[in-house]
Design the sequence.
């Protein structure tokens, strides 16, 4: 097996507008998930509830949350998937130095998930979490971010994907399940903030 080629400065650089667009998309995602986290402990269903919040509510209060709420084509969820696709596109120029194929997968997954979600009303949203998981693994192996943000992304995506999406389908609602989902949600929100800050920093540096 051939060794991974060294990372070059050209491969790590993104056009300024790409980095800034990704940073803005990440900041919007962070803000949306932060608003959702604030309302996570509220009893009534809020307009800011994304599918990750609904999964939490189903785990901790299964009798007060309609399970069919996950089967609704939510404009909020579509918007989140689109913003995440933009975020992943902005990280592609740096992550491709590790693997062009897997870096491309992180961009394709959330965008491909949109038509699947629109067609089924259920499937497709997990593509966002899987893309975050893969991109964080690539970031851990690259010079794109420090180990802290990359490790946060891996743990957050794993908790939300395997415990949140898959776990709620396989196991009965429980407080323990809800705790893991909540921890994953908080880590996911922190990871979005770290990634958006890094992209904005790179965009500003490219302008100098």
Sequence:
């Amino acid at each position: 097996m051939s060794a991974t080629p060294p990372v070059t400065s050209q491969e790590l650089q993104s056009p300024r507008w790409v980095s800034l667009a990704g940073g803005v998309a990440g900041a919007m995602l962070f803000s949306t998930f932060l608003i959702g986290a604030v309302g996570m402990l509220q009893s009534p269903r809020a307009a800011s509830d994304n599918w990750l919040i609904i999964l939490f509510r189903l785990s901790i209060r299964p009798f007060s949350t309609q399970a069919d709420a996950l089967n609704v084509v939510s404009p909020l969820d579509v918007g989140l998937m689109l913003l995440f696709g933009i975020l992943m596109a902005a990280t592609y120029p740096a992550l491709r130095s590790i693997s062009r194929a897997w870096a491309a997968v992180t961009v394709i997954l959330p965008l491909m998930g949109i038509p699947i979600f629109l067609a089924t009303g259920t499937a497709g949203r997990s593509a966002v979490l899987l893309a975050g998981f893969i991109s964080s693994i690539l970031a851990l192996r690259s010079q794109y971010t420090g180990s802290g943000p990359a490790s946060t992304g891996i743990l957050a995506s794993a908790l939300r994907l395997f415990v949140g999406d898959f776990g709620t389908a396989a196991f009965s609602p429980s407080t323990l399940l809800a705790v893991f989902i909540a921890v994953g949600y908080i880590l996911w929100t922190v990871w979005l903030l770290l990634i958006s800050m890094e992209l904005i920093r790179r965009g500003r540096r490219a302008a100098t």
Observations:
- Residues 1-11 have pLDDT under 50 and may be disordered.
- The first helix runs from residue 9 to 12.
- The radius of gyration is 17 Å.
- Residues 12-206 form one domain.
